[in-house]
Amino acid sequence: MNIFRKLEQYWQHPLLYWPLVILIAAATPFTFAPYYHFWLMPLLFGALIRLIELRPRFAVMTAYLFGLIGYTAQFYWIHTALHDVSGLPDSYAIPLTFLLPAFLALYPAICFWVWRKCNLSRWAKTGLLLPILWTLAEFARERFLTGFGWGAIGYSQIIKDSPLAGFAPLGGIHMVTLATAFLSAWLVLLIDNHGRLKHRLLPLFLIVALCSVGYISQQTEYTRPDGSTSTVALIQGNIEQNLKWKEEQIIPTIQKYYEQISKTSADIVILPETALPLMRQDLPEGILEQFAEQAQSNGSALAIGISQYTPDGNGYENAVINLSEYHNSTSDVIPYYAKNHLVPFGEYKPLPTITERLYKMMDMPLADFQKGGDNQAPLVMKDQKVAFNICYEDGFGDELIATAKRSTLLANISNMAWYGKSNAMYQQLQQSQARAMELGRYMVRATNTGATAIISPKGTIVAEAQPNTETVLEGHVKGYIGETPYMKAGGSTWLISILAVIGVFLILIGRKKTRIKNF
């Protein structure tokens, strides 16, 4: 390992150190969909750990730079939504594109700030405490201010080829993140170890054990088919966002979706988020009835993504309505699911007095939705009980458990046209793969532009539509019942609680040793 010793002498030099940090961070998007280079993330994160070990004085600055560059590289499509679609001038769009990564980068910075303050052995500090702190930071990032969990390192492992994906049904995405962080840290201890060969046996053993547990879990069937099989048709309209809400496009859009529905006889037909560009109550008379009759004549149960006024008429919801049993006489009692976890700034205005001017400059209709409520019932469609979630909600596995327990099939409807032909659609697809693994059920995705797909309970993409095309993706799914360990535990709270206790314990020991040393 002398070669690493020699290389590290060069890596510590500022002329190499900071470019290396930037390069490592800029490479992180390749670990996620659509590239799926899962093996790269432990190497990149491990390299970050080692660089910080070499220059611990700059730990916080290094971690913040890593987060800023990494999250900007992953979420570059924010600029697409702000400038290309919403029409915001670059003088506003470019700074705002960096605003979210600049905020998110605080989490890795805080993680390494705490890590640096602790005076522990290298094994305890890097091999145990650091992965715990990183996982806690990722959890906080997913929850604070409604949360933004995109880019968590655990998502890089959501592919069947990675043994670490097997931790998803055990403890959710945060357990996968923990496993990934452990693997990265233990690789560092395995490679950069000044001790004898015998001192490398422990990290090697832990790495083998970690991957083995993940692999065994991946082969384990936690849920089971209920005997039902259904055909599904997922409608992809491919309507550009800057045309979607224009008045002259309303009738052509309705006609397009009607024609797509009429061409399929699948058991379950699903249209994407806000497919019909009007409030449900404002649709021309008879439109829903025509859609329902056409689907019913083909033997299909039909679900449509559409906005609707709340029952009191004072607000509006982002909903998916079930027209399986719809008739004109039942128009006031349509079963539906309404989105509950809203996108800050996109679907509601957390700081209206500050951001109102920006909304006036952008073409963003319907930017202040109402929540649909927790634990909504699945929608019954033919032989399946379908647990719907809408767009952004697919990133929050804990929130889907209650409804998933009562369902046989998961479904996501989204409109990713806001982000053009960027990787945003694929990053969200990988989140759906994680949810399918966590909840042990098929996940079907009906999107406007992509990624429309059918995903197995093991997270495998069974079928996927060509993105940015007008098409209907058809395929077969099986109804599943039962609960994964993650579902039985009720989510990630137990894991985070245990990690928090261990983390606090290690921090207190580390702080005590620091005080003794200083004394």
Provide a brief overview of the structure.
With 519 residues, the protein is of the alpha/beta class.
Can you tell me about this structure?
- With 519 residues, this protein is α/β, with parallel strands linked by helices.
- It is 47% helix and 15% strand.
- The protein is built from 19 helices and 13 strands.
- It has helices at 2-11, 14-26, 40-54, 59-74, 77-85, 90-104, 106-117, 122-143, 168-171, 173-191, 201-219, 241-244, 250-262, 287-297, 352-361, 401-405, 424-439, 485-488, 493-518, and strands at residues 224-236, 268-270, 276-279, 301-309, 316-322, 336-338, 379-381, 384-390, 409-414, 443-447, 453-455, 461-464, 471-481.
- Strand 7 (379-381) and strand 8 (384-390) form a beta hairpin.
- Helix 2 (14-26) runs antiparallel to helix 3 (40-54), helix 3 crosses helix 10 (173-191) and helix 4 packs antiparallel against helix 7 (106-117).
- The chain is globular and about 80 Å long.
Q: Fraction of residues in helices?
A: 40-55%
Derived structural class? alpha/beta
**What composes the largest sheet?**
7 strands, mixed
Number of strands: 13
Instruction: Enumerate the spans where pLDDT stays under 50 for 5 or more consecutive residues.
Output: none
- Radius of gyration equals 24 Å
| Discrete helix count | 19
Terminal residue distance? 37 Å
- Quaternary organisation of the protein chains: single chain
Global outline? globular
What number is the mean pLDDT?
Answer: 91
Strand content: 15-25%
